[in-house]
Amino acid sequence: MVEGLSYRYPRATTDSLVDVHLAVAPGEVLAIVGPSGSGKSTLLRLLCGLLSPASGRVSIDGEDLTRVAPEQRPVAMVFQGFALFPHLTVRDNLGFGLRVRRVARSERVARVDRVADALRLTPLLDRLPSQLSGGERQRTALGRALVRDPAVFCLDEPLSSLDPVLRTAARRELQELLRADGRCAVYVTHDQVEAMTAGDQVAVLRDGRVEQVATPRELYEHPATTFVAGFVGTPPMSLLPAASAGPVVAAFAVPAGATLGVRAEDVRLDAGAPPVPVLAVEDVGSELHVVLDVGGSPLVARAAPGVRVLPGDAIGVRVPPERVHVFDADGRAVRLGPIR
């Protein structure tokens, strides 16, 4: 779908996207995640034709759409905050794009009714957006895109305006809708939980470049770089200079300047191991996150809520060597995953 895509905004000194290659299979959801300024929304605008790339191409089903006008692309956008017209009913919001394109009234009504039925919106067709729940507004925004019969959905932070409770419920509903429809979608979010739960594949962007594309499980278990390792997961992977990790990690051969990565669930509390200082204890309800000082670097361990440990204590911990990730001096995985 995207080959060698690069883009720089006018008067900017650096590229917002650099040589991006991505593909989305039919029926697949590709989640795009990364910190602010990584190029996520820029990528969506290029897909939709709202921006023109400096180089590279955008194609759908083998057709080059790089220079095709936005309204002529088989792509539909779902915006942040849903962008529904507050003075129009659900019915009129759903059919607005068709009316602008001068689709015949009979066809417009038929398509709106069909989509409303599929998205369980039929009882709501005469309501205004202010009379809808967050999930109902989400379905209306998706339905407005769906009536266009697009090949690709582009969703730009579609849940960012919802409060946490509504967001969780709406996220699940959106996942069901996208997969039930069977079209491909590109889902941009800064929330890694959304990315990991919504995406069949997840692309992690950093400074306009793709760090890694993989399934959510592969991304978590086999991060390709220290950036991905530290970005994906809650808590994120702890990263320790190999030279100072000796008290906790058994020695084994690593490249010069290597960094060791450890997931919190792989840290074992062991009274027989060398003690290390406890820097902080975070109680998140279902578990404790115990932050340890290992050679001047923080190592986070998961512990059961009943474990009694306080900042200032010293406790014994160890990490099985087979659960350690190794990254070279450039931050790239020496092995894509734990040592076996």
Describe, in plain words, how this protein is organized in 3D:
The chain is an alpha+beta fold. Helices cover 25% and strands 27% of the residues. The chain has helices at residues 40-48, 90-100, 105-118, 134-146, 164-181, 192-198, 216-221, 226-231, and strands spanning 2-7, 17-22, 29-33, 55-60, 63-64, 75-78, 152-156, 184-189, 201-206, 209-214, 238-241, 259-262, 268-269, 275-283, 288-294, 297-303, 314-318, 325-327. The strands form four sheets. It has a six-stranded mixed β-sheet, sandwiched between helices. A five-stranded antiparallel β-sheet has the order 13-17-14-15-16, with no helix packed on it. It has a four-stranded antiparallel β-sheet with strand order 2-1-4-5, with helices on one face. α2 packs across α3 (105-118). The longest helix is centred in the middle third of the chain and has 18 residues, at 164-181.
Helix content: 10-25%
Largest sheet: 6 strands, mixed
Strand residues, percent? 25-35%
- Helix/strand-derived class? alpha+beta
Question: What general outline do the C-alpha atoms trace?
Answer: elongated
Q: Strand arrangement, largest sheet?
A: 6-7-8-3-9-10
